């Protein structure tokens, strides 16, 4: 009789030990994913920042050309000043538009997006994580949501 209780006890401890090991592996995998994603995000952010810096330099050059052209026009040398003024203005406008677009994209960008989604998907079955209301995460949840939507449409049309 004691052997049966001991086997049961070892079985529960074994399951608990296996669960703890699996949770440790999962945590390590999440940390590795986060590290890789941080590297990729920093690389992408550096590329976007260098684009903005290059466009800022182009805008500064354009501003200098525009001011030189304006000085030539005001000094009475219109044939030399007008092209400088036009080229400088074009540089400033194009660089400014490019910087606005690049900054808007940088603001919309969510760093660590994959890691956050994966961690929340992992924690939800454990009852720890939270989801945004109405946002299915797994394929099964998405299929269930589609089924509910179809049923709600059918019920509403009766």
Set down the secondary structure blueprint:
Layout: H1 2-74, H2 78-108, H3 113-123, H4 139-156
Helix pairs in contact: 1-2, 1-3
Question: Which whole number gives the mean pLDDT?
Answer: 80
Name the helicity range. over 70%
Give the amount of beta strand, in percent: under 5%
Largest sheet: none
What string gives the helices and strands in order? HHHH
Please report the distance between the alpha carbons of the first and last residues: 63 Å
| Overall form | rod-shaped
Report the total helices: 4
Low-confidence stretches: none
Classification by helices and strands: mainly alpha
Oligomeric organization of the protein chains: single chain
Rg calculated over all Cα atoms: 30 Å
Number of E-type strands: 0
Q: Would you kindly provide a written description of the structure presented here, covering whatever features stand out?
A:
By secondary structure, the protein is mostly helical. The chain has a domain at 2-111. It has 4 helices and no strands. It has helices spanning 2-74, 78-108, 113-123, 139-156. α1 packs antiparallel against α2 (78-108) and α1 packs antiparallel against α3 (113-123). The chain starts with a helix and ends with a helix. The mean pLDDT is 80.
